């Protein structure tokens, strides 16, 4: 366990080392959230769709989804870089599981982003545009639980894509396509309620809506009672499923990884 | 430093030689080129799809229809395709300075900027953005209310070139700053790509600060917004002097000339610092 904690600390510190990068990241996040909100305001000026989301619910939705996305920015080329440099060979010799080590490293990074970048930005934006409080304590707890499940789920889904590097693939294209799909379909840019009905039905069958949409819907109280429990159960099921698949793929990949250099 | 005299013809020949080498290198890794181009195309297409879904759902945005929006978007993609084809070396220049590769340029009997420009091209980005740009333009140009006189066709072409030069100037100034050994990549990307995303929608959507920025400071508005506004004859909610619409091609040339001055200043400083 100590070993994993070390990697979490490394993950936490890695980003801190690049202070300007981290500040630029924060500003970028602030600007893009503000832009998104301005855009939606312009759309709502023409009437909007207040039956689905009121203007202030929409603000809250956009701020929180962007916050979750920002905190969950992960090091997409961790595996590929280690394969290219050959240091993956060292990782294989460690008395730790590679899967667990990478998870700890990612959690460390996410925690750092949450504390130093996302939380201050959310406070600032909440002050500028206004963010609603959750309607009940239960909604708040469900949202937090669901956000934690999102971390696991997103990490495991990412891992499936990153692992292609273990078979010698160059993953830039895969990562780009994956990121574009998640960005659009997780509900971070356009709330899923605004999608055409057929697309909503399709998304409900995938893990994509669990990533960002579900925690925020829980926070807003749009998913409550039995609906909330079903959504959480579904999320947990996806997370466990993805974790099993992830560790299988990771183990297979490590066995077939070919490392050059020395 | 003694410098061999080059004529325009000899420079053009050298540029073409570089280009053919680049093309060969890319064709040797044809599969990589295809996958990366596809990934770029896919990513940008989804961005456009978001705009489409949003505006289609609500009818119009600040009086712009989906078709008009796509028309405006196409200028962004077409001009960036040219930027990636011609100015990738400028875009990626700061990395070269920090890795010391830049010194190699100084000892060759050729202009430094010429070498920087001629040696690199991001063909995947050119293909990804270019294909999307052409598709959007062809699709939207028929559906929007524009009577394509030859003057309008010329104006559209010049606007794309002007837009290319505007973006090239931003990249060139950022590259020049790296001569003072300041790394601006992150800040540059932040400003460049956020304003580019902004530019997809009519300027009138945004608060005054952002409008001011994209008209007067980092004039992305001249890349697609003013040209589209002019061609569509739109009297948008955000009123700037009408002359701005005519000026789009000129802004690019002026900015490029100014950024060349900054570049020269930086370059002379760098060589005088010596290594």
Indicate the topology:
The complex is a heterodimer of chains A (262) and B (275).
Chain A: H1 2-17, H2 19-45, H3 55-71, H4 78-85, H5 88-93, H6 98-129, H7 137-162, H8 172-185, H9 197-204, H10 208-211, H11 213-219, H12 226-256
Chain B: H1 8-28, H2 30-58, H3 66-86, H4 88-91, H5 93-98, H6 102-106, H7 112-118, H8 123-143, H9 150-177, H10 185-199, H11 208-217, H12 225-232, H13 243-273
Helix pairs in contact in B: 2-3, 2-8, 3-8, 3-9, 3-12, 9-13, 12-13
Query: Strand pairing plus helix content of chain A: what structural class?
Result: mainly alpha
Distance N to C terminus of chain A: 29 Å
Number of domains of chain B: 1
In total, how many beta strands of chain A?
0
Report Rg of chain A.
19 Å
Report the β-strand fraction of chain B as a percent range. under 5%
Shape of chain A: globular
Name the average pLDDT of chain B. Answer: 86
Low-confidence stretches of chain A: none
DSSP E strands of chain B, number: 0
Oligomer: heterodimer
Percentage of residues in helical conformation of chain A: over 70%
Order of helices and strands of chain B: HHHHHHHHHHHHH
What number of domains of chain A? Answer: 1
**Helix proportion of chain B:** over 70%
Global mean pLDDT of chain A: 88
How many helical elements of chain A?
12
Percent strand of chain A: under 5%
Order of helices and strands of chain A: HHHHHHHHHHHH
Biggest pleated-sheet summary of chain B = none
SS content category of chain B: mainly alpha
